Amino acid sequence: xxxxxxxxxxxxxHSDAVESTIRAKIEDLEQVHSGIIGCRVVVSAPHRDKWxxxxxxxxxxxxxxxxxxxxxxxxxxxxxxxxxxxxxxDAFDTARRALQDQVRKMSDHRTKRHPxxxxxxxxxxxxxxxxxFVETEDGHEVYFxxxxxTKSSWPQIQVGNQVRFKERDGEKGPYGTQITLLD
Length: 183
Description:
Helix content: 10-25%
Strand order of the largest sheet: 9-8-7-10-11
Order of helices and strands: EHEEEEEHEEEEE
CATH superfamily of the largest domain: Ribosome hibernation promotion factor-like
CATH class of the largest domain: Alpha Beta
Structural class: alpha+beta
Number of helices: 2
Number of domains: 2
Number of strands: 11
CATH architecture of the largest domain: 2-Layer Sandwich
CATH topology of the largest domain: Double Stranded RNA Binding Domain
Distance between the termini: 54 Å
C-alpha cells in the first residue's frame, strides 16, 4: 500500500483490539489486489436503540488504480451489527468481493482480444465465386470473401488494390474481416 491506512472512530472510543482487527482485514485485502493505493476505515455508532443497544456502521474506502471502492455497512435493522466485530467482518467481506470483481474485470483472461489492423495488397481475385486473397506486409496470404468488405465495393476491387483489414484465425487458416479499400 502506498499510503498508511486511516482508521477513525466516531461516537465510539478508540480500541487497540478493534484497530488491530481492522489492520489485519486490510492486509487480507492486499492479498486480493496488490495495487491498493490507500484505505480509509470509519467505525461509528450513530445511535443507541433504547431496547437493543448500539448498531455499528463501518465504512471502508479502498483506493486503487481505476475507480475507488466504497463500502458502507449502515446501521439499520441488522441487529447482528450490535457486535462491532461482525459489522467489521461484513464490511470487509463486501470490500473483498468488490476487489475480486475489479481484478476479474482487469485480468487478461476475461478481456476480449480484438484483432489488430493489418495492411496488405489484393493478389488474387475470383469474382464469380465471390472470394479473393490479400498478401500482408509480412508476406503471408489471407482469404476474404465479398461479405468481408466494409462497403459494397466488390465490383471495384481488383488485383493490386491496397487494403486495410482485421486478420482472424479460422478452421482452414487466416481470413480477413472488415476489409476496406485504401485506393
